[in-house]
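Hi everyone, sorry if this is the wrong subforum. Our group has a chain we'd like a structural model of before ordering constructs, and none of us has done structure prediction before. Sequence below.
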Amino acid sequence: MTFGEKLYRLRKEKGWTQERLAEQIGVSRQALSKWESGSAVPDAVNILRLSKLFAVSADYLLDDAFESSDATWAGRPSGQARRPASWAVLRTAAGVCAVSVSLLGMLLLGILSSAFPCVYSISPAGVEWTRVYTGLWGFLKTNHLEWLFALCGVLLLAGAAVLCSPVLKRLRDRRASSPAPDQ
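Answer:
Right subforum, don't worry. Here is the predicted structure as tokens:
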């Protein structure tokens, strides 16, 4: 749907004449008529006035791919609304935080294991072998912190998955949309 068609439809939904709408945004009726017919396009200031007046986004008015004012993107399957860019920023921030916290936790455990070296040995009764843990693993076992190290590992994987998911989705979409090679 073109800008002119959208403007005409929005004006008719309100029950306004061209004169009334032109008066409200401060232009001539002839200018409005040209916008609706598609022979002219308003400037940015008038686009903003129209978007505020009709409570629609400027994207909706200007982009022919928007078919309805509820911000549904025509190129997406029905029922999937276009997410604002802030979702991508929040997802990236969450991924970076998760990776940072997990790496910081692992680094702190490594530093503590160097500062407070521990030796942890297991020698079950009735067997001839003894297992000895030193370094980081000795520190973790002595202080019963294996769970914390595992939690840091899971958080690292989750953060990496959140950061990589948009890239993997684009690759999957590109592969699905590319034609199959001839065999």
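For your construct planning: The chain has two domains: 3-62, 85-177. Residues 87 and 93 are 10 Å apart (CA to CA).
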